[in-house]
Amino acid sequence: MLRLTEAAGRRSAGADGAYVVVEDGGRAHASRAPVHETFHVYVDDHDVLRTDDLLGMWGATAMRLHDKLEPARPR
Q1: Contact at 8 Å (CB) between 12 and 29?
Q2: Distance (Å, rounded) from C-alpha 43 to C-alpha 25?
């Protein structure tokens, strides 16, 4: 099992994290978004690699993804 977490919170510009970029009259303005993201990577009981991805903003769940990776089937 592997768990990767990106904590939300105030950080200086240029720090790791998600950014919102707006262009206005040829100038770009960027601001760090208050995003908290967690990836949980694991192998299930059937030896299938799976990931759960939880994305939160302002203390609320914004998106939840669940994926599985299996070997390609012969054609």
Answers
A1: no
A2: 49
Separation between Cα atoms, residue 55 and residue 66, nearest integer Å: 12
Long-range contacts of 21-30 (CB under 8 A, 24+ apart): none
Per-residue pLDDT of the chain (75 residues; tens, 9 = 90+): 888 887 666 666 667 777 889 998 889 988 888 888 899 999 999 889 999 999 988 889 999 999 998 878 888
Q: Is the dihedral of CA 7, 10, 16, 21 positive or negative?
A: positive
What's the half-sphere exposure (Cβ side, CA atoms, 13 Å) at 73? 1
Tokens of 74: 């012969």
The CA distance from 75 to 66, in Å, is 26
pTM for the complete prediction? 0.60
